[in-house]
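Worked example

This section walks through a single chain of length 232. The input is the sequence exactly as stored; nothing has been trimmed or padded.
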Amino acid sequence: MNGRERREDFRFYLPLVMSTRSVLDIGCGTGALLHWARESGHAGRLVGLDPAAGMLTVARRRSDIEWVQGDMESAAWDGEFDLAIMTGHAFQVLVEDRDLRTSLAGIHSALAPGGRFAFETRNPLARAWEAWTPEHAVEYTDADGAVIRIEVAVDEPVEGDIVRFTRTYSSERWSRPETSHSTLRFLDGDTLAAFLADAGFITEEQYGDWDRSPLSEASPEIITIARRPRDR
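Given that input, the structure is written out below as tokens.
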């Protein structure tokens, strides 16, 4: 199994993509999921959207997929897709209410009537950030054979549903560590449902993990499939 096939979220989303003729991947990164879909025989329209030019440079190794630099605030699709997806907890990067509403409005507009929006966010009741400590550092080997260590430290105190944290990357081959700072929003189920309803979505399915187990207080994820209603 390669890296993408090991990802539980990709294995969840791929059947949705394969069963849909036109797909928008929001925050597509290097395009791994759409690459996999095309290699698996998807013959319809696949579009990847991401704000990072460097990510899209890697994604563009496949020219039979549309790649667009930007976000849902700058995009202007109108009823063009049967499915929109956000993987890798990208939904949690939408921290401000305004950003959430703008993005959801753009997704709703981009979907055809009856189109679905599938995404996940970490369940705040599971308090995943409490395990984001240097003691839980992970290591991986990059393409050049260097072992990279990643440590995460949460900026205390955690305020409401906002979690700020710092990642530190280090390697024996580097002269000094590198750091990055991130902020994520952990929406509870009721707040998430309210944002979706306000944007005109109907929530059709929710799961608590990638095995499609029911959502509960102990679930690590809130995996949602919402739908733009058909016009009456």
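What to look for: The longest strand covers residues 111-122.
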